[in-house]
Amino acid sequence: MNEKFDYAKAIAELEEIAAKVENPETRLDDIDALVGRSKQLLGQCRDYLRSVKEKIDSLDKE
């Protein structure tokens, strides 16, 4: 991944996905794709938060 992960952008996209999934006009096929994308974003958010926690923990040890 060349570009830096943007946590705020990922959260905004997750909020957009949630709104689309809750919309009764969204087709089931689209919901399947949206759920897949949300899983990908959640994984990236977890990785990012884990790396931030590790950085903070390493600062506490100094």
Distance between the termini: 30 Å
What gross morphology would you assign?
elongated
Q: Cα-atom Rg, whole angstroms?
A: 15 Å
Helix content: over 70%
Helix-strand category: mainly alpha
Strand elements, count: 0
Give the biggest beta sheet: none
Multimerization state = single chain
Mean pLDDT, all residues: 93
Low-confidence stretches: none
Q: Give me the strand/helix succession.
A: HH
Strand percentage = under 5%
Query: If helices are DSSP runs of H or I spanning 4 or more residues, what is the number of helices?
Result: 2
Describe this entry's structure for a reader:
The chain is an all-alpha fold and 62 residues long. The chain has a domain at 24-62. Helix 1 runs antiparallel to helix 2 (28-61). It is elongated, with a radius of gyration of 15 Å. The chain has two helices and no strands.
SSE arrangement:
Layout: H1 7-22, H2 28-61
Question: Can you tag this structure with a few keywords?
Answer:
81% helix, 2 helices, 62 residues, single chain
Task: Give a brief rundown of this model.
With 62 residues, the protein is mainly alpha-helical.
